[in-house]
UniProtKB/TrEMBL annotation:
Presence of keyword Signal: no
Subcellular location: Cytoplasm
Binding site for Mg(2+): S223, T244
Main location: cytoplasm
Key words of the record: Coiled coil, Cytoplasm, GTP-binding, Hydrolase, Magnesium, Metal-binding, Nucleotide-binding, Potassium, tRNA processing
Positions bound to (6S)-5-formyl-5,6,7,8-tetrahydrofolate: R17, E74, K113, K440
Transmembrane parts of this sequence: none
Protein name: tRNA modification GTPase MnmE
Annotated source species: Novimethylophilus kurashikiensis
GO cellular component: cytosol
Cofactors (names): K(+)
GO biological process: tRNA methylation; tRNA wobble uridine modification
Length: 440
């Protein structure tokens, strides 16, 4: 298989990757010879008629010492669309098939180069939008998460072996549960599991970030608040506006946690049909947020109109009233709970009270300040860890029924296996690798 591995569009360098048994033959045809293994070779990339398509660096990685574990040929040429397409077509004409998204990593997984959690971390590293997220993905990629999972599995296996051995001698008149310290071992596995879950949960916050919708009347201070939240940290990483009428999504970070902000600047009364369409899309996006910040002007308090905005966002799990412009009424920053709703009084202009808001956002997300050594994890992993936890709890209830206890331990191990992908269904693999970039 072959694919363009670099991002689409123009770039200084463009890379074509070819993986599979025929990679050396393709090298011989395009380069005139197969480059010596793992050496960067500056060489012409030739077309069918012998003319030069491009000149660049070719590297050949023979199996099994390559990313996929198969023979890999990498052609690093100029990053132009036409030249890369021509080169790709040439590889396809020579019998390579076009790689599917994530297929290189999938083959790496199938050839035991990576386990499933590591393979997922490859995609998470590419998708990471903050430095902290990238570092935690890198930790998972280098196997830190997996090694915790393996260590836990070792202990489960030892315990299972003991319990199952005892099953074979049911008539023995000894209390094997007490003898073997089974209760203590279960307890210690449970503690380790809970630490692992906590770290994984933090990792999943870094991966998924928090969806925040910012809503309010024109001039209430939405843009100013965005800028304050973003701070000096370059802040607005992306500001993609489909059209001026469309939803504006920005991404900022708080302590390395990605915050996806939907600015609802476009939510005003209108009769323009295109605009109405854009506004419907904005509402739909707003309704899927985790947190809604409803900005009001502290000089007039909450109006009926603003209450109706809140009602429309009743599906958003967390709603916070932001009373902005407190500098105009000479009041101090404050966070207050009224009728089960949080009210934060601040000034987007002076910055007073912004830290209250930031702290509250991170708290709602479940982020722990100063968390270190977090590795990236996905919802799928959290679910599996919950499954292990459930089986361990069951095991503790079944201490007097060795057969049930053994079965609970087996289920616990099975849930752990799901994380690193010891036994995995094709559906799950399709789901995981289908979301990768092509060429990775
Ligand atoms: P948006 O339309 O909701 O995005 O509002 P902007 O952020 O563009 O702000 C509208 C106007 O209100 C600007 O002139 C801001 O300088 C001003 N403004 C925003 N926040 C504050 C605040 O906390 N205090 C004061 N005095 N003015 C503010
Ligand atoms: Zn604005």
């Amino acid at each position: 298989m072959a694919a363009i591995a670099t991002a689409p569009g123009r770039g200084g360098i463009g890379v074509i990757r070819v993986s599979g048994r025929a990679a050396p033959d393709i090298a011989v045809t395009i380069l005139g010879r197969c480059p010596s293994p793992r050496h960067a070779t500056y060489i012409d990339f030739l077309d069918t008629d012998g003319s030069t398509i491009d000149r660049g660096i070719a590297i050949y990685f023979p199996a099994p010492h390559s990313y996929t574990g198969e023979n890999i040929l990498e052609l690093q040429g100029h990053g132009g669309t036409a030249v890369l397409q021509r080169l790709l077509q040439r590889c396809l004409a020579l019998g390579a098939k076009l790689a599917e998204p994530g297929e290189f990593t999938k083959r790496a997984y199938l050839n035991d180069k990576l386990d499933l959690a590591q393979a997922e971390a490859v995609a998470d590293l590419i998708d990471a939008s903050t430095d902290l997220a990238a570092r935690s993905a890198m930790r998972s990629l280098s196997g830190e998460f997996s090694s915790h999972v393996h260590a836990l599995r070792e202990r489960l296996i030892n315990l299972r072996m003991y319990v199952e051995a005892c099953l074979d001698f049911p008539e023995e008149d000894i209390d094997f549960i007490t003898e073997g310290g089974v209760i203590d071992k279960l307890e210690s596995i449970r503690n380790e599991l809970s630490l692992l879950s906590t770290t994984a949960k933090q990792g999943s916050i870094l991966r998924e970030g928090i969806q925040v919708v910012l809503i309010g009347q024109p001039n209430v201070g939405k843009s100013s608040l965005m800028n304050q939240l973003a701070g000096q940290d370059i802040a607005i990483v992306t500001a993609i506006a489909g059209t001026t009428r469309d939803t504006i999504r920005s991404e900022i970070q708080l302590e390395g946690v990605p915050i996806h902000v939907i600015d609802t600047a476009g939510l005003r009364e209108t009769v323009d049909e295109v605009e109405i369409f854009g506004i419907q899309r904005t509402w739909r996006a707003a309704e899927t947020a985790h947190i809604a910040l409803i900005l009001v002007d502290a000089t007039h308090g909450i109006t009926e109109n603003e209450k109706s905005i809140l009602a429309r966002l009743s599906g958003v799990p967390q709603q916070i009233w932001i009373h902005n412009k407190i500098d105009l009424v000479n009041s101090s920053p404050e966070i207050r709970e009224v009728d089960g709703k949080t009210h934060i009084f601040l000034s987007a202009k002076t910055g007073h009270g912004i830290s209250l808001l930031k702290q509250h956002l991170l708290e709602l997300a479940g982020w722990r300040a100063g968390t270190e050594g977090v590795f990236m994890a996905r919802q799928r992993h959290l679910k599996a860890l919950d499954g292990v936890s459930q089986s361990i709890e069951n095991a503790k209830k079944n201490l007097n029924q060795a057969e049930l206890l053994a079965e609970d331990l087996r289920l616990a191990q099975e849930s752990l296996n799901e994380i690193t992908g010891e036994f995995t269904s094709d559906d799950l693999l399709g789901e995981i690798f289908g979301r990768f970039c092509i060429g990775k």
